[in-house]
Amino acid sequence: METFPYIPHTGSQGQMTPRTLVVQFGDGYVQEAGDGINPMLRTWNLVWQNLDGVTGATPTLKNINDFLTAHAGYLRFLWVQLPPFDIEGAKTFVCKEWNWVYTGGLIIGLNAKFLQRAL
Q: Peptide bond before 8: cis, by omega within 30 degrees of 0?
């Protein structure tokens, strides 16, 4: 499994949305439980700014875009999360969506949404 090597910039955000199963009964009683054995998986909205479109600065937008394109939204890859979660080591993620930031006709940034997957 490949490792995503590019470090995102400031402004990246992580989110935890536990998956739960909910049953609501007619008398207002609600019963809830965790959904599966791994209901606590993170989502990261990552940002890369002021990068060279094709050549020069490392990493380039092309490097990042090529990596994400090669994984096609469903192939898993390893990524070490941002602090303080980096102490957990590399975890498995997919990236189903990413977009480019344009300024003055040039691509200068890229935003990607990483979804953690259980092994």
A: no
Q: In angstroms, what CA-CA distances link 33 with 5, 15, 115?
A: 36, 20, 21
Residues 91, 79 contacting (CB under 8 angstroms): yes
Rounded Cα distance between 75 and 35, Å, is 23
Q: Are strands 30-34 and 42-49 parallel, antiparallel or unpaired?
A: unpaired
pTM above 0.70, yes or no: yes
pLDDT in tens, 35-48: 999 889 999 999 99
For residue 34, is it left (φ>0), alpha (ψ between -120 and 50) or beta?
beta
Residue-wise pLDDT tens digits, 67-107: 999 999 999 999 999 999 999 999 999 999 999 888 777 77
